[in-house]
Amino acid sequence: MKIYLDSREMPSHFYNIVADLTNRPLPPLHPQTKKPVGPADLTPLFPMELILQEVSTARKIPIPETVREIYSLFRPSPLVRALRFEKALGTRSKIFFKYEGGSPSGSHKANTAVAQAYYNKQEGVKKIVTETGAGQWGTALSFACAQFGLECEVFMVKGSYDQKPYRRSIMQTFGATVHSSPSNLTQAGLEVLREDPDSLGSLGIAISEAVEVAVQDPSTHYALGSVLNHVLLHQTVIGQEAMLQFEKVNEYPDIIIAPLGGGSNFAGVSFPFIGEMLRGGKSVRSIAVEPASCPKLTRGVFGYDFGDKSGYTPMLPMYSLGHDFIPPGIHAGGLRYHGASALCSQLLKDGLIEASAIQQIECFEAGLLFAKTEGIIPAPEANHALAQVVREAKQADEEGKEKTILFNLCGHGHFDMSAYTDFIQGKLVDHELEQELLSKYAASVSTDLLNQG
Amino acid sequence: MKIYLDSREMPSHFYNIVADLTNRPLPPLHPQTKKPVGPADLTPLFPMELILQEVSTARKIPIPETVREIYSLFRPSPLVRALRFEKALGTRSKIFFKYEGGSPSGSHKANTAVAQAYYNKQEGVKKIVTETGAGQWGTALSFACAQFGLECEVFMVKGSYDQKPYRRSIMQTFGATVHSSPSNLTQAGLEVLREDPDSLGSLGIAISEAVEVAVQDPSTHYALGSVLNHVLLHQTVIGQEAMLQFEKVNEYPDIIIAPLGGGSNFAGVSFPFIGEMLRGGKSVRSIAVEPASCPKLTRGVFGYDFGDKSGYTPMLPMYSLGHDFIPPGIHAGGLRYHGASALCSQLLKDGLIEASAIQQIECFEAGLLFAKTEGIIPAPEANHALAQVVREAKQADEEGKEKTILFNLCGHGHFDMSAYTDFIQGKLVDHELEQELLSKYAASVSTDLLNQG
């Protein structure tokens, strides 16, 4: 069962949850002075409109007409009831998913990429530099830049660069230049390579490289695919559409589930529903799922930390494993990030959302069953949501309850087939992280600054 | 602009163009006796219901409810107006496409795979063996078999097997066993390997292998992804949906374009419209596009020929390059077949459709522009349709006309990214075929049998 919306029913604005929060996140701090950053600190990286969105407390921010026009290539996305998956699980619960895999990048990332490229173009920027992990964000930005005639340069985490040649190829097809990160093109990259010439890289390192390139040229900006408020904001089109789609079939989710790398995917689907709850509407449980091998929400420290490896970015108040932490090379590259967005972190701290950490084999078991029954091969990131969906459905069945579960199928896994081959051949391994190791890296997360922030 | 249909608006029947033809195709002939084949000749390969469909003259054949239920995972498929592509071309014409890339296999092949698996299951078959070129058909059948608990074994043309490891992987994810063809598992394969140990294979060879395996076990059947009447029949859901979608926006195509490998894709989108025309409805130009390196429609011979390399299959009345012809290793693996279905061949012979042969570089130029503007990376096969769309739009502009063009975007190119890389890097080559070579192979096409058939 698919619930479609007409293109005229596409959201007209982004939803800003900050407007509905009692406890708003603490401000970002300047990496050197440790004082709250002002707009001027960010202008080398972002266009002013995005900086304003980053600090906005308005509930609604209008979506520009040009952005909506490009959205209409892939939005509104369908809300689907996974009837055959439900049947295979033998559950009494109803399982719905929002399918974001139909976009040009094959994931939700296109939602913010188009908006960010638009605002940069408006401000006369010529080129955008970014990082990418699994490749979904880099692909989305490549496509978005092509729509506005912007150059696009992508630092791709080496692990993924080597593992996913087709991802490189799709970015190049959309016209982008792609580098393996750590590269020898930046100081940040060279430093990492000096320490470890075989480094597989990390999102933290790739961000440092992209930021370093962006600040050197006034006509070049940087773009981030998750973590920041404005990125989460753009993704709320997902949840807003889902809400309208549920309305059309007289349903409402009891539980919302999404994977969490930086937080934009999770925020995108859940924030509009959480906002509804905060304004006195229906109650909803929102569960962010992270890999057990990168467990910032369940085993990280809440404090101020850098967004990147080299400490170029502002410090953010967030759950973090420490910016030097490099997660094991699991297949869900998009979830291999040391921190969670300030907004998601604040909501977790305040008990408004829940977190769950799952090992990758359990995730792929759920993903394979979903592929066989629903005919969509989920991205490894999305398999994390699926594993939690299975857990919740089983739990409800055991308790004799019938839940309505919504999860965000954030992207397809067409460029991750080697992960499925590994899984089928029994080559996938789970990673147990020792507390000692985690504590070592977490020491760099500053809880002292929380009082100052 | 996307035009969706509700799942209740999905076609309730397959449309059989035979009912509306004045000149029906001649019957298939037995490979040894050269007499028309009877149902008994085909029972080792196909379930009776499909054999009956193969010879049916009824206009409408009901789609079983179970098949429609599985279709609802990916059908009705959207009809989309390619506004940004039109703008990039600067054309006055309207370009619409039916998007079949949202299916489990990423192509139109799922339409017939689900139906064929269903009828085989109904008849107690345990396993289906098939061939695949680009991998789209094998993927579709793998998924379909998984829905009915059937085993699936796929002989994949070696050129594609080596070029597309992810295609193998997706078939295995759906539970199929995949062999590189020519293989050493069959007499047909061994014979080819004896002559040429480095053979890249062909669809004709892979069909021989699959048929050979199927006939050896009564609980195993064979399935073909194109060419036969019943396969074309199942694909007519595409054109039927498109017709209803055009109706909703008060449009009607002047020109319908699709690539032609065996003919099912082309037939699927065009036959319902051609049928309308044959019954006195609106006139439409339907153009089948083939690669210039496998030009059966434009440079082949109309006569009786085998469907496979080894002469195991019945002989069909068709345009053929000769069953020994092995096309150059172009990237559109799905179009590397020596013959065209009897139905498409008959329509071409009778002037009811047109044919066009295009070199692959022109195709990829059109495909790249489409990817950048519409955000969908077309399969190399679909790029052939796109190149013809560009030609028709330009032609209309030159003549000061405004046409409504429909093409079938039969699949996405996510598993064909190496082709795009080759194109971007200037490594793609066009192949000119000498008439002498073509004549040599075409000598095996029997025009004498046309009188007998």
Question: What would you note in describing this structure?
Answer:
- The structure is a homodimer of 453-residue chains.
- In chain A, helix 6 packs parallel to helix 8 (165-173), helix 9 packs antiparallel against helix 10 (203-215) and helix 15 (360-374) crosses helix 16.
- The first copy, chain A, has a domain at 65-106 and 230-452: Rossmann fold (3-Layer(aba) Sandwich), CATH 3.40.50.1100.
- In chain A, helix 12 (264-278) links the parallel strand 10 (255-259) and strand 11.
- Chain A is of the alpha/beta class and 453 residues long.
- A seven-stranded mixed β-sheet of chain A has the order 1-4-5-15-10-11-14, with helices on both faces. A four-stranded parallel β-sheet of chain A has the order 8-7-6-9, with helices on both faces.
- Chain A contains 19 helices and 15 strands.
- In chain A, 42% of the residues lie in helices and 16% in strands.
- The mean pLDDT of chain A is 96.
- In chain A, 62% of the residues are buried.
- The A-B interface holds A 1-2, 4, 7, 72-74, 84, 102-104, 106, 110, 143, 146, 165-166, 169-170, 172-175, 368, 371-372, 374-377, 412, 414-415, 417-418, 420-421, 424 and B 1-2, 4, 7, 72-74, 84, 102-104, 106, 110, 143, 146, 165-166, 169-170, 172-175, 368, 371-372, 374-377, 412, 414-415, 417-418, 420-421, 424.
